[in-house]
Design goal:
Blueprint (H helix, E strand, L loop, with lengths): L1 E4 L4 H10 L6 E4 L17 E4 L7 H9 L4 E4 L9 H7 L2 E3 L6 H17 L1 H9 L17 E5 L3 H13 L2 E5 L5 H5 L3 E2 L2 H7 L2 E4 L13 H6 L4 E5 L8 H9 L3 E6 L21 H7 L4 E3 L8 H20 L11
Parallel strand pairs: 1-2, 1-3, 3-4, 4-5, 6-7, 6-9, 7-8, 9-10, 10-11, 11-12
Helix pairs in contact: 1-12, 2-3, 4-6
Bound molecules: nicotinamide-adenine-dinucleotide.
Pfam families: 2-Hacid_dh (PF00389), 2-Hacid_dh_C (PF02826)
Organism: Roseomonas populi
Family: Belongs to the D-isomer specific 2-hydroxyacid dehydrogenase family.
């Protein structure tokens, strides 16, 4: 099947091409993000493959439908960038990668938390500069502290398992409680109690209508002073402006983020020679207690291998008229 692969980086080309040896699809790689200006590049391609920051809204889907696209596969778990209602209306099927290494993201979230708490990234910069002073680098023991997990699905539960290993007490918030989380000693509480009681909070729920800015001014006002917050899920879960205010007032003790609500026009590109017009992100990186990475939590060999294999399996199943195991539809 002819597949237009958008937002294709060198590693996408390499790993998708390798996985494709057993599928034989005709892959055409586009570096560009899918959006209103680039949708025409998909004309004549029955399948389109996208990533987290492609804009797959109604007008783009209409353009894809006009060009003959009938399947959109996202190389991600989250599918908040795709208008599922519009896709359903246009007869375009949508598949995602429901299940790839949850360890990739959970381990990265823990890595961010450790770096943030113990200032490892700052210490590294200091020692490279011949500065071996410890002032400003003091952290706290995670052992005996309370970790709040918002979203105890696949990734949240792996995160919780690691935190249990540190000897943390665990609080969870999720409309669908998990017995596995409870078996780890986790206790489900309302969001406000989680904010009030937790020393560290990690976000692992999807971005949907009900979760946009789930961590906003209200949550941060209720939070335990000095809270360390980690977001490896989706940028829109955190109200960035409210986080900046909470950092300035010192209620928020530190923020580590792999995702950012306005990341679409910034991430996955080298912008080191550009003037970045986004004042929110520039303010964020000016804080000594903010750690920012560019949506790399998924980026392990294992996760990429599964993402590529599952994406191509979806395309093959679609081509054969078989059921799509990873299909998502509007509720
Ligand atoms: P999952 O579906 O297994 O778990 C999500 C959990 O969130 C579910 O248990 C669900 O009930 C819960 N949830 C839904 N609404 C909620 C709410 N309002 N409050 C609290 N919990 C709520 O998904 P997963 O595989 O664990 O992935 C979680 C998210 O991680 C994805 O949606 C995606 O946005 C993000 N992610 C990020 C990266 C990255 O590279 N940074 C990679 C993969 C996934």
């Amino acid at each position: 099947m002819k597949v237009a692969v958008f937002s294709a980086r060198r590693y996408d080309r390499a790993m998708l091409s390798e996985s494709n040896a057993t599928h034989g699809h005709e892959l055409t790689f586009q570096e560009a993000r899918l959006g209103p200006e680039t949708a025409a590049l998909a004309a004549g391609f029955p399948a389109v493959c996208v990533f987290v920051n492609d804009a797959v809204d109604a007008p783009v889907l209409e353009a894809l439908a006009r060009g003959g696209t009938r399947l959109v596969c996202t190389r991600s778990t989250g599918f908040n960038q795709i208008d599922l209602r519009a896709a359903g209306r246009l007869g375009i099927r949508v598949a995602r990668v429901a299940d790839y290494s949850p360890y990739s993201v959970a381990e990265f979230a823990v890595g961010l938390l450790l770096s943030l708490n113990r200032h490892i990234h700052r210490a590294h910069n200091r020692t490279r500069d011949g500065n071996f002073e410890l002032d400003g680098l003091m952290g706290f023991d995670l052992h005996g502290r309370t970790a709040g997990v918002i979203g105890t699905g696949k990734i949240g539960r792996v995160f919780a398992r690691i935190m249990a290993g540190f000897g943390c007490r665990m609080l969870g918030h999720d409309p669908f409680p998990s017995p596995e989380f409870e078996a780890l000693g986790g206790r489900y509480v309302p969001l406000e109690e989680l904010a009030r009681e937790s020393d560290v909070v990690s976000l692992h729920c999807p971005l949907a209508e009900g979760t946009r800015h789930v961590v906003g001014a209200g949550f941060l006002a209720a939070a335990k002073p000095g809270l360390l917050l980690v977001n490896t899920s989706r940028g829109g879960l955190l109200d960035t402006q409210a986080a900046i205010e909470a950092l300035k007032s010192r209620r928020l003790g530190g923020l580590a983020m792999d995702v950012y609500e306005n990341e679409a026009s910034l991430f996955f590109e080298d912008r080191s020679s550009e003037i970045i017009p986004d004042d929110l992100i520039q303010r964020l990186v000016s804080f000594p207690n903010v750690l920012l990475t560019g949506h790399q939590a998924f980026f392990t060999r294992e996760a990429m291998g599964t993402i590529c294999a599952t994406t191509l399996e979806s395309i093959t199943a679609f081509e054969r008229g078989e059921a799509l195991a990873n299909e998502v539809t509007a509720r």
